[in-house]
Amino acid sequence: SRPVRIAPSLLAADFARLGEEVRAVEAAGADWLHLDIMDGHFVPNISYGPQILKALRPHCGLPFDVHLMIAPVDPYLAAFAEAGAAVISVHAEAGPHLHRSLQSIRALGCKAGVVLNPATPAAAIEPVLDMLDLVLVMTVNPGFGGQSFLRSQLPKIAAIRRMIDASGREIALEVDGGVTAETARPCIEAGADTLVAGTAVFAKPDYRAAIEAIRGDAIR
Ligand code: DX5
Ligand code: ZN
């Protein structure tokens, strides 16, 4: 099996040195850069917007994996596409028009993802499966880094893995929240192929060792 992708979340980086931080995780072997966009409305925290992505784009060769925790979402999709997003993921809970949002993301030339909060069942993706390039399962309630991993989400990850395999489509299965070298293992066993990690990378002194520990390189 292919090694899992690691997507460090910029939320845990030093915001006074963002350019250096993205260069450092890229040099340390990260696969994607995960960007958490929070509006203080859909989630109880505010992070940063598309200007930051645009400023970082020349400093980083990694695909930008954009996680939108905002409502409404549709008026802002073009700004994130123009700022250099490769994948844009929207929450199934963020509004009544998930299908339209996914259509818009694809029309902007980006890959489209859907995110499920812990209380949202796997079945929420069924009606839009043919429009997806990625499914992101939250293993914390979104809004903050550094929370503990919710093991209750593991059966949902496994159920979505079965849905993706049955579809025969190439859809990434990403997990976000509380991922560490320890919690990565059950996620991978449940069928995740992409892991987001904020504090488990940026709060460590050696980014390369941190990424390798999450990927499980030491035990492979
Ligand atoms: C939470 C964000 C996560 C967060 C993860 O709302 O979606 O991406 O940065 O942080 P850790 O890895 O520290 O749980
Ligand atoms: Zn995220």
From TrEMBL:
UniProt-annotated catalytic positions: D36, D176
Domain of life: Bacteria
Pfam families linked: Ribul_P_3_epim (PF00834)
Sites where the protein binds substrate: S9, H67, G143, F144, G145, G146, D176, G177, G178
An MF annotation (GO) of this entry: D-ribulose-phosphate 3-epimerase activity
Isomerase as UniProt keyword: yes
Enzyme Commission no: 5.1.3.1
Catalytic EC class: isomerase
Pathway note: Carbohydrate degradation
PROSITE patterns the record matches: RIBUL_P_3_EPIMER_1, RIBUL_P_3_EPIMER_2
Keywords: Carbohydrate metabolism, Isomerase, Metal-binding
Family: Belongs to the ribulose-phosphate 3-epimerase family.
Function of the protein: Catalyzes the reversible epimerization of D-ribulose 5-phosphate to D-xylulose 5-phosphate.
Protein name, per record: Ribulose-phosphate 3-epimerase
Species in which this protein is naturally found: Roseomonas elaeocarpi
Native organism taxonomy: Bacteria, Pseudomonadati, Pseudomonadota, Alphaproteobacteria, Acetobacterales
Gene designation per UniProt: rpe
